[in-house]
């Protein structure tokens, strides 16, 4: 059972003392299960909240009188922001361990492929696709990562901030993975242009709506809207569409068995990020006091950001025709992405 300032009692010489401070059992938060997990021990209530354990008001506040964290940093409302627990239970140590494992895997794959001369066997048209469009995609990943890095600052609890920040970290790591990967294979391919991806991102008509969708996410001043838009709207309609529906499908047909191994890491990242995000959204949609309000807010975000994501997806269609090997049609890939979105939103009761 959570302790609050009213439960603080006076100890020796008038010193403040928490109730049950001499007990060997945790009492300052209620575990999700029978016993607290290591994740909960390292995460719950790390971020202060005057409504729970601070006898005084915020230790740090801004000139306008607002505390370090405020509930109105998002339009969503909660009866208990502290109830959320990330399904992946990731905290600092486990996060670094997983990131290190992924980096080691990618490094081994790329080094072994280069040693075997694999990049030299890539189809020439596919090389142009990697150079221009996978090179452009790294900027999309970086944009989402930057947006979520900004968003995590405003979450009201450490559990929410952890989930958003690890999401950001995965995006920024993958953007770096793509940058290093393209630079490395580019050394083995004559005429490979490392700057082509940035030029395509900034100038090509195919990518302008994707930039627009991401810039709308980055421009929101609501941290939960950024988190929601990235995972519920953009990722299934554009992210998975491009990574799984195009790159991972087309690469083997163009004599490239290396790129799918690199890109697959991002799909595993998204599975974790989506689970965390939907768990938080589900909690808010079933809040005992604010469920109706939250549904209205989330439906509005869904309408806005899914429309932008669909515009981005449709503009990417010409890319499907550029490689010689075409194992999947754009319409089939897009149908799967729409089905994915429908599954996510129907499970949450949105739309």
Please report the number of helical segments.
10
Query: Radius of gyration, rounded?
Result: 23 Å
Order of helices and strands: EEHHHHHHHHHH
Supply the CATH architecture of the largest domain.
Orthogonal Bundle
CATH class wording of the largest domain: Mainly Alpha
Number of domains: 2
Unreliable parts? 1-14
The largest sheet is: 2 strands, antiparallel
Protein structure class: mainly alpha
Residue share in helix: 55-70%
Beta-strand content: under 5%
Q: What's the overall geometry? A: globular
Q: How far from one another are the termini?
A: 36 Å
Describe this structure in words.
With 351 residues, the chain is mostly helical. It has 2 domains: 1-68, no CATH class; 82-348, Ribonucleotide Reductase, subunit A, CATH 1.10.620.20. It has helices spanning 38-43, 92-115, 124-151, 158-186, 196-203, 208-219, 223-250, 259-285, 291-315, 330-348; strands spanning 9-10, 16-17. It has a two-stranded antiparallel sheet. It is globular and about 65 Å long. The two termini are 36 Å apart.
Question: How would you summarize the topology of this molecule?
Answer:
Blueprint: E1 9-10, E2 16-17, H1 38-43, H2 92-115, H3 124-151, H4 158-186, H5 196-203, H6 208-219, H7 223-250, H8 259-285, H9 291-315, H10 330-348
Question: Can you give keywords for this protein?
Answer:
351 residues; 1% strand; mainly alpha; 10 helices
What is the gist of this entry?
The protein has 351 residues and is mainly α.
